[in-house]
Amino acid sequence: MTSSLYPHGSHRTPLPPAAVPADGVPSPQTRRPTAEAPAPAPAGAGRPKQRDAFFDNAKYLAIVFVAMGHSWEPLTDRSRAAEALYMVVYTFHMPAFIVISGYFSRSFDASPHRLKRLITGVAVPYVLFEVAYTLFKRTAGGDPDYPISLLDPWYLTWFLVALFVWRLTTPIWKIVRWPLPLAVLVAALASVSPEVGDDLDLQRVLQFLPFFVLGLCLKPEHFQLVRRREVRILAVPVALCALALAYWAGPRMTSAWFYHRDSAQELGAPWWAGIVMTLALFGASIVLTACFFAWVPGRRMWFTVLGAGTLYGYLLHGFLAKGSRFWGWFDAAWVHTPWGEIVVTVVAASVITVLCTPPVQRLFRFAMEPKMEWAFRKDAAELARRRHKA
């Protein structure tokens, strides 16, 4: 046997030094399992990864608040109560959604697989929906000359731009010593810098950044902390105080501060107000977001399955939210009565619920989660991992 492998005797060519194996690829020294002693299957092998019901519930409820907030906007001019609710919801609904996005971006490492997912799941939907929104505004909005510009996100597409930028910068936030204070500093500087401009909605990207970084810094035990019974009880008076404060502040301040899309100077305030409002709104948003998480159920509910389709609902409901303004749905006098406001709220929650359902996800998956295998080169390491698993 030895002579057949080495026909020229015992003088063998030295082997090259062993390289560190890639993740999932066996090294030359890896002992392969034999037929007599098969390798044990890893725990949980063959089972689909279970989704956490709490986060699916939180995403669904947050997106419902987003839709209700959009439906309340036309009512705020005539109803002080609607304005107070609008301000409270806008304080936490997007921050809560962004915190969850940051929490689930902790594993982003700029590997080829994750970059592909970022392109197909964020960049491509941005291009498609930005074009679709522009065409919708040209037709339904009566603005036939509105240009298609991928540098100027219209309406809801800003979030996809922000998510793309935030995830690309995730490795940076994971290595700096004080990521959250640094992110808050960046947001405060953006709020006093009108030179940032509107390209790619960078004001929103930078001013909402601390919530994404906060999500990166959180651990499972932090969510368990805010879901304790005493926190749930305390959340009720805190929310009521926030609602009373919003009712008082409604006529005295502009709600544009909650959009985080303009600098202080662009809102007609002195530059230092941008720093003050950045810190104040960040603190208020964190408190109300904690109150929101405290009341999110942790068990499976009838709407838990809808948590996987929240981005579908978010982007699709924008056509109805804007269409309702284009088509004058809020011009009717009954809409501005208390009963009319309740109807509008129920309709908004119902529409966003339908748009998050699995049938709608299957219908629009070509735009939201395209495979696009043809667009990428085959990754040798990934192919090796697949062969090893097989």
Strand proportion, as a percent range, falls in under 5%
Q: How many domains make up the coordinates?
A: 1
The biggest beta sheet is recorded as: none
The SSE string, one letter per element, is HHHHHHHHHHHHHHHH
Query: How far is the first residue's CA from the last residue's CA?
Result: 30 Å
Helical/strand content category: mainly alpha
Rg estimate, integer Å: 26 Å
Low-confidence stretches: 1-46
Number of strands: 0
Specify the overall morphology: globular
Individual helix count = 16
Q: Percent of residues in helical segments?
A: 55-70%
Average predicted local confidence, pLDDT = 86
Protein name: Acyltransferase family protein
Domain Acyltransferase: 53-356
Keywords: Acyltransferase, Membrane, Transferase, Transmembrane, Transmembrane helix
Biased composition (Low complexity): 28-47
List keywords for this structure.
390 residues, mainly alpha, acyltransferase, single chain, Acyltransferase family protein
Give a written overview of the molecule.
It is a single chain. The protein has 390 residues and is mostly helical. The protein has one domain (53-382). It has helices spanning 2-5, 53-72, 80-103, 112-139, 158-168, 170-175, 179-191, 202-207, 209-217, 220-226, 229-249, 271-294, 310-326, 338-355, 358-368, 380-389. The protein starts with a helix and ends with a helix. The relative contact order is 0.15. Residues 1-46 have low confidence and may be disordered.
